[in-house]
Amino acid sequence: MAKATLTISSKNYSSWSLRGWLLTKFSGLEFDEIITAPDDASARAEILLLSSSILVPCLRHEGATVWDTLAIAEYLNEIRPDAGLLPDDRILRAHCRSICGEIHSGFTTLRASLPVNLKGRFPNFKIWSRAQADIDRVCTIWRECLAKSGGPFLFGERTMADAMYAPVVTRFMTYDVKLEPRLKAYADMMMATPEMQEWIEAARAEPADIEELEVEY
Known about the structure:
Number of helices: 9
Strand order of the largest sheet: 2-1-3-4
Structural class: alpha+beta
């Protein structure tokens, strides 16, 4: 049995669970998954953006209990400093933390209008102006990061930023968001990583659907 456990909710719908899972995978820390039941009230509230306090994912490791994705990221960086979750350079670390904080606390219209749904595909999806503004900001962040680093990841090597923006990548695929070539190459590369492929395969195997997130607009 691994020394750590990670409690997550739906792999098909939960952006926060995906972030926490990827962060832990990227760190190299061995962990056992604990998956909450589809009808668990707190997990459902988190997925539907109805919870004021998000307690999933939750990492437990050697007496520590950490349940916020940014806190999980910082904790993993502390215990696994050689994993590269943050860039070595001080200025790049500050930039990485800033864009992680931005996606963690913002983009509420994007979250509500384009919910994560890995089994779903909605070609020519109608994107409203406020959601488009969030999409434009994400694209600016990616564009600036990739221009500075040269890719393939946002900061050249894989960092916590790629885990934090991974759910946005899936949203862009699900809702047919058109991206310029460099950004599409980044999104395609992220979707093709072994970790994302493992998550997607498990998401597609989930038997339960959440009706509220299956609506076509």
